[in-house]
Design a protein that fits this description.
This protein has 117 residues and is mainly beta. 0% of the residues lie in helices and 53% in strands.
Length: 117
């Protein structure tokens, strides 16, 4: 069983930056991929970015060029650097991991990001 703990959310002004962290209880090398999803009020959860075991990254069109996903295998942590934040980025951000062998999905508890002046 893998536990994921997100941190780094908060209130930021439009145009500002935040860095989210997702710390895993086990080795992230046992995961086929890890990623960030978000859910705004009244909307479905959507993909933000993913990164594979081989560090290949994929982004939603809405965040390309503004967000960067990265991983530190030694710290079992995945990051999401968010720059040029917009009000429409306001959401609860969830960390996700997909196990390499079983393809089981794991989710964190979420961290709130609010972009407002």
């Amino acid at each position: 069983q893998v536990q994921l703990v997100e941190s780094g959310g908060g209130l930021v002004q439009p145009g500002g930056s935040l860095r989210l962290s997702c710390a895993a209880s086990g080795s992230i090398l046992s995961m086929a991929a890890m990623g960030w999803y978000r859910q705004a009020p009244g909307k479905q959860r959507e993909l933000v970015a993913t990164i594979t075991r081989g560090s290949s990254a994929n982004y939603a069109d809405s965040v390309k060029g503004r967000f960067t996903i990265s991983r530190d295998n030694a710290k079992n942590t995945v990051y999401l650097q968010m720059n040029s934040l917009k009000s429409e980025d306001t959401a609860v951000y969830y960390c996700n991991a997909v196990a390499l062998v079983t393809l089981k999905n794991y989710w964190g508890q979420g961290t709130q990001v609010t972009v407002s002046s």
